[in-house]
Amino acid sequence: MRENLAMIHAPLQRASSDLAGDFGAQVVGALIDEVTLAPKPGLVDIRSQGAHHDLDWKLMCKSALALQLTFVELAQAGIETRPLPELRERIGAIGRDGEARMMDATHGVNTHRGAIWALGLLVTAAAREPDDLAADAIAARAAEIARISDRHAPLQTGHKGEQARIEYNVGGARGQAQAGFPHVVQVALPELVRSRQRGDSETAARLNALLAVMASLDDTCVLARGGRSALAEMQSGARRVLAHGGAATLSGRRDLKALDRRLVELHVSPGGAADLLAATLFLDRLQVEAPATTKPNTTNA
Q1: Which of 37, 155, 213, 216 has the most CB atoms in a 10 Å sphere around its CB?
Q2: Is residue 215 over pLDDT 80?
Q3: Residue 6 to residues 1, 2, 45, 61, Cα–Cα distance (Å)
């Protein structure tokens, strides 16, 4: 495991030292932290494929590294492009190019489509005002960008998450972003802080943050695969783990294993919650390892 992690972190250490490069490296670091975290119920991690047959830890890491340039470009757009309508269209184009880069790296497997959207908005918003990296401030700026329409975006993508959002009348990834990522700012980050303050390990604290999101999120990845019954099982199972002390307790760990087994049986994976955990870890990283905030000259791109 240590050799695997060293292999992944080496390219991050060689990242550009400029502001956009720093932000891009932080996003990729958060994505790798998310996929490495274990044991995550129904999700790919360093020990398991979860409920997936076409994904594994190495492929997810390969995808994250392939997207580093995309996140650097998104941060650069946030720095350079001040008018919001122009910024929205610029990052939309960068995001679509990033999705193509991801699909090329994974030979057509969707590994990080949702993360490109969520973390793309957040890294843009962070880089736009690098002197104000409070999580709620970044999320509010990201929401402002997300609420602007992109004239060049396809009206319908046909993606399963989008179809589930429409079929089940839930907010989905778009709703989360436009509302300012409430499951990140109001749910996951506070749970992460609470777990750390009571002495939980960092692994347990991050798992508890994920479970807190799973307990209430209308995850379109789960809805697309298993419908409302699977979503209800996921939410109740996550609440049960937290009610029994979370991932740091023996009882909580037993419940966590049972939830993992059940989600694998149902062939559902809470990918939306995983994306929001990665977003949480990114914002958390910025509180500890904020890039140098000497603001470069800006231009109207």
Answers
A1: 213
A2: yes
A3: 9, 6, 16, 12
Q: Are 137 and 181 spatial neighbours (Cβ–Cβ below 8 Å)? A: no
Helix axes 2-13, 57-66, angle to 10 degrees: 0
Structural domain contains residue 174: yes
Instruction: Identify the DSSP state of 213.
Output: H
Q: Which amino acid is at 17?
A: S
What span, in angstroms and rounded, lies between the C-alpha atoms of 266 and 173? 22
Maximum separation of any 2 CA atoms in the chain, in Å: 55
- Per the domain annotation, does 43 fall within a domain? yes
Contact indicator for 63, 44 with CB cutoff of 8 Å: no
Angle in degrees, CA 259, 263, 269, rounded to 5:
120
Q: Which of 1-5, 242-246, 248-252, 287-291 has the lowest mean pLDDT?
A: 1-5
Q: What is the mean pLDDT of residues 83-90?
A: 97
Expressed as residue numbers, the domain containing 64 is 2-148+168-288
What's the predicted TM-score (pTM) here? Answer: 0.91
Total of domains in the chain? 1
CATH of the domain at 73: 1.10.4200.10
Q: Which element (helix H / strand E) includes 142?
A: helix 135-146
In a domain, 295, yes or no: no
User: Would you say residue 154 lies in a domain?
Assistant: no
**Residue owning tokens 């870890």:** 281
Could you tell me the two tokens for 64?
């994250």
